[in-house]
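This part of the workshop introduces the protein records we will be handling. Backbone structure tokens are a discrete shorthand for how the chain folds in space. Once this layout is familiar, the rest of the handout is easier to follow. The record below serves as our worked example for the rest of this section.
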Amino acid sequence: MQVYQACVLSTLLYGSETWTLYSCQEHRLNSLHLRKLWRILGISWQDLVNNKSVLAMAGLPSMYALLTQRRLCWLCMASLPAVPAPPASGPSDPRLNSFNDIMSGNI
């Protein structure tokens, strides 16, 4: 499952924070996600297992939840103020000596 998360999901969802998807496209991504989980877990349609149970067995959220999580994370990062670049000659305030000091001053 860790290989699926690290390789497949990260490659599949690369840049998804900025995608504009229609509901049919989200549905297709969710179907792909569930089909791959069914195959990894060795479950066939004859086992009569619903998709919520498959997600619970895999310990993964649905594709809808993954897309929403990535979009919200991107929106939070995009809404943060830009970090000012330090002056070329060094900090004007001698108390601001490190990046953490600069960051704590802006927060």
Notes: DSSP finds five helices and no strands in the chain. Helices lie at 2-12, 23-41, 51-58, 63-79, 99-106. The chain has a mean pLDDT of 80.
